[in-house]
Design a protein that fits this description.
- By secondary structure, the protein is α+β, with helices and mostly antiparallel strands.
- It has four helices and three strands.
- Helix content is 64%, strand content 13%.
- A hairpin with a 5-residue loop joins strand 1 and strand 2.
- It is rod-shaped and about 110 Å long.
- The two termini are 68 Å apart.
Length: 165
């Protein structure tokens, strides 16, 4: 790579020196104008000479690989962000259930599992409530969770104090 760059730079310098000498030796008038045009074309040729060895297919392969890696990384980041958002949303739903129970005068803890809907929203699909709740309190809380969060009672699990480890 460095040898190629060195060779190219030497070719450009040599062409520049040749053109400078030719310009100094040319008589004024039309000959000098044509000579300058030729020298300009020689310099452009020297500057653009590496273009003939350019492998466009290799460049295209590199770009395709880079873009595919970029897409993979983007999907990976999106998955990471979605999982973190899911955790936050599940915690918020659990806090909501605990607050609702507290409004009704009960103490409990809650865990919520969410699933992404077709619209791209995380909605609760399963709830686990632990605490010293009577059957009537469980039934009332189950009804509140069904009405306000849309989690069916079949997907609600209640663990009493005696069942806790």
């Amino acid at each position: 790579m460095m040898a190629a760059l060195r060779g190219w730079l030497l070719a450009v310098i040599a062409a520049s020196l040749l053109c400078a000498v030719a310009d100094a030796l040319m008589p004024p008038g039309a000959v000098k104008r044509v000579g300058r045009l030729v020298c300009g074309l020689v310099l452009i040729g020297a500057i653009l000479s590496p273009m003939k060895d350019l492998d466009l297919a290799a460049g295209q392969r590199w770009l395709d690989g880079y873009l595919s890696g970029l897409r993979f990384r983007e999907e990976e980041l999106e998955e990471t962000v979605n999982s973190q958002i899911k955790i936050i949303i599940e915690q918020e739903y659990a806090a909501y259930i605990v607050d609702k129970a507290a409004e009704l005068g009960w103490t409990c803890t809650a865990g919520v599992e969410c699933r992404m809907s077709e619209e791209g929203l995380y909605l609760p699909c399963r709830v686990e409530v632990a605490g010293p709740l009577t059957q009537a309190e469980r039934a009332r809380l189950a009804q509140v969770i069904w009405e306000e969060l849309g989690v069916p009672q079949s997907e609600q699990v209640y663990i009493g104090e005696e069942e806790l480890p």
